[in-house]
Amino acid sequence: MIHGDLDGVIAIGDGHNDAEMIKYAGLGIAMGNAIDKCKKVADYITTDIDDNGIYNAFKYAGII
Length: 64
Known about the structure:
The chain has helices spanning 19-24, 36-41, 53-61; strands at residues 10-13, 27-30, 44-45. The chain has 64 residues and is an alpha/beta fold. The chain starts with 9 loop residues before the first strand and ends with a helix.
């Protein structure tokens, strides 16, 4: 069960255990190398982890 407002939550992931987190976060980001299940529920798909994926995700989210 989800409690509280998740609009301000950013979730970044790539594996089976990340898909639900990505789906319910205010901004769900899948890594470019993520499984299809994550990519299908993500608001944004960044580049692969080895291609500055975290940096690009943070830029997209306005963190940096």
